[in-house]
């Protein structure tokens, strides 16, 4: 009986060992990183056969003395537990494999290569400004009088050429003033000539008197009188020039090629000296003050500091576009302003348009 127990125990242990080998074989085949193994014959029938032999032997012969036979289900339960563990491990391994593949694919990055070469480019900045004339003039009357004539071209919006007579003021009084100044001048010329001759005569008389040395007073030789006559002549000459200038001011002229913006006189009106008669804009050159921020200035060529001053011309080409009509003009940046606006914190670049 004891020998039978030993045999049954050994058979059970052998069954467990075979079950373990079978389970490990299956697990190795299902693992993604496992190496392939040689095929083996199925051991499940052998396990079943081994498990059935003790049961048959126990049924054929019962032990004496009422002893209970050794239960063989121990091998079956061990095999079942191992099979369940093998199935669970196989399922878990199968479920983890796709996740690992997705994680590996997610770590792959798309990489591209671009060949670059050094090249030069023209900096472009955009700014806004208002077109203004280079010269804006409020034309005022230099003399008083009544307007006696107005030129047909002296109208608002008209273009007038340089030195064009726009209006005339009555010059009667100024003609008389010029004539009077000329008479005074001629009298001063005569007086000066008389004093010069009297001075020559005085020197001759002093020489013939036989007196030694110089006379005690300069009045004897009429030198002070000669200087006074010369001063009178100079004053008379200035009066003539002043009268001529006032007479010329009776003709109101355009000081440059101009656009008439406004006219403040009419035919027959009386104007006072210093009163405004018209507003004129220069027609030859227009300017645009373009405000640029510090970051925009940094994109432009700096060069020498003297190039950015008002003493030198920058000559940067720019294209100006009318925001209303879309018309464009070609202009040049000629200078930059050093001062910065208190409100916008910008500095102006001055663009010049010729013949706008």
TrEMBL record:
GO cellular component: efflux pump complex
Domain called CzcB-like barrel-sandwich hybrid: residue spans: 138-279
Coiled-coil regions listed: 226-253
Molecular function as annotated in GO: efflux transmembrane transporter activity
Extent of Polar residues compositional bias: 83-106
Keywords: Coiled coil
Location of region: Disordered: 51-106
Name of the protein: CzcB-like barrel-sandwich hybrid domain-containing protein
Species this protein is from: marine metagenome
Lineage: unclassified sequences, metagenomes, ecological metagenomes
């Amino acid at each position: 009986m004891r020998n039978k127990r030993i045999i049954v125990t050994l058979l059970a242990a052998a069954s467990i060992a075979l079950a373990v080998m079978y389970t490990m074989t299956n697990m190795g085949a299902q693992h993604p990183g496992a190496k392939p193994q040689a095929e083996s014959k199925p051991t499940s029938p052998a396990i079943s056969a081994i498990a059935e032999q003790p049961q048959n032997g126990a049924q054929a012969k019962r032990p004496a003395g009422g002893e209970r036979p050794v239960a063989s289900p121990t091998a079956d339960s061990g095999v079942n537990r191992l099979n369940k563990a093998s199935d669970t491990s196989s399922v878990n391994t199968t479920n983890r494999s796709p996740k690992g593949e997705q994680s590996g694919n997610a770590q792959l990055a798309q990489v591209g290569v671009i060949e670059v070469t050094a090249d030069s480019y023209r900096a472009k900045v955009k700014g806004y400004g208002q077109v203004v004339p280079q010269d804006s003039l409020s034309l005022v009357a230099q003399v008083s009088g009544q307007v006696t004539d107005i030129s047909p071209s002296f109208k608002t919006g008209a273009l007038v050429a340089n030195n064009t007579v726009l209006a005339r003021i009555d010059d009667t009084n100024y003609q008389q003033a010029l004539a009077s100044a000329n008479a005074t001048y001629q009298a001063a010329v005569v007086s000066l000539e008389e004093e010069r001759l009297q001075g020559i005569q005085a020197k001759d008389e002093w020489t013939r008197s036989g007196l030694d040395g110089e006379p005690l007073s300069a009045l004897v030789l009429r030198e002070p009188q000669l200087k006074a006559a010369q001063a009178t002549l100079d004053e008379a000459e200035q009066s003539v020039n002043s009268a001529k200038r006032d007479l010329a001011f009776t003709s109101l002229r355009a000081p440059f090629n101009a656009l008439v913006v406004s006219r403040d006189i009419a035919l027959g009106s009386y104007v006072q000296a210093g009163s405004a008669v018209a507003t004129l804009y220069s027609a030859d050159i227009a300017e645009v003050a373009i405000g640029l921020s510090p970051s925009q200035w940094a994109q432009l060529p700096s060069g020498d500091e003297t190039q950015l001053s008002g003493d030198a011309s920058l000559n940067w080409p720019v294209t100006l576009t009318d925001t209303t009509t879309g018309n464009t003009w070609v202009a040049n940046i000629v200078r930059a302003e050093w001062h910065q606006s208190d409100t916008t914190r910008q500095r102006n670049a001055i663009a010049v348009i010729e013949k706008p």
